[in-house]
Automatic annotation (TrEMBL):
Protein name: Universal bacterial protein YeaZ
Organism encoding this protein: Treponema vincentii ATCC 35580
Domain Gcp-like: 34-148
Pfam family, one: TsaD
Gene Ontology biological-process entries: tRNA threonylcarbamoyladenosine modification
Length: 221
């Protein structure tokens, strides 16, 4: 199966393609052209190296969210365009469970956090690989009661340093271990996540759009 995964969640833009030639990843980090300008060349390079063309994509993956408005919209638009132009299957991948799945060897509690700015975090808690909370948009102070004090927690995601250095977390007696997730690995992780959980994931026909959690400023007004 020709699979393309598009990751637009962070300042590191990455895509992964799996085809006849195996698995190939392409990424871009830094200043200069925007993600929107860089995305199509990265897709073309990845699928070509993997042994197929964008038009031959059979399944396209993009982050479902939560995450930044701009990043989620870009990934959704690119995946939707490929689906409509090539009639491929579009499967959105839930961001926080996918990040948690990278740490399946950790037998215990995992908290996945993404720095949502304004001193808030998108977060979800897992135990032995299974979610034990919904996805939140909360401050560190509001998240603290969800952590049991007599257990150790692995905290991972994008923005773990910001979470670690909040007063609520730095002054807590809870045992935390912090590991910043590698943004270069998320596109690849979406493919492995789909291959493992594809039977329970939504396809584009059931997909209303990205999971933002936080309302935009326009919606608040």
């Amino acid at each position: 199966m020709n699979i393309l995964a598009i990751d637009t969640l962070t300042s590191t833009l990455s895509v992964a393609a799996q085809g006849p030639n195996g698995l190939v990843t392409q990424s871009f980090t830094g200043n200069g052209p925007s993600h929107a300008e860089r995305l199509l060349p990265l897709i073309d390079a990845a699928v070509t190296a993997a042994g197929f063309t964008a038009a031959d994509t059979e399944t396209v993956l993009a982050p479902e969210g939560p995450g930044s408005f701009t990043g989620l919209r870009l990934g959704f638009a690119a995946a939707k365009a490929l689906q409509l132009s090539g009639n491929c299957c579009f499967i959105p991948i839930p961001t926080l469970p996918c990040i948690a799945s990278q740490y399946e060897a950790w037998n215990g509690n995992i908290a996945v956090v993404i720095d949502a700015k304004r001193e808030r975090f998108y977060a979800q808690l897992f135990k032995n690989g299974a979610p034990v909370t919904e996805a939140f948009d909360k401050t560190a102070v509001d998240l603290l009661p969800y952590f049991s004090e007599n257990e150790e927690w692995l905290v991972t995601g994008y923005g773990t340093s910001a979470f670690k250095h909040t007063d609520a977390i730095s002054q807590s007696s809870i045992r935390f271990r912090f590991i910043e997730a590698d943004p270069l690995s998320f596109a690849y992780s979406m493919i492995t996540y789909m291959q493992k959980y594809g039977n329970v994931l939504k396809n584009a026909a059931d997909y209303a759009g990205p999971q933002y959690i936080r309302k935009s400023d326009a919606e608040k007004d």
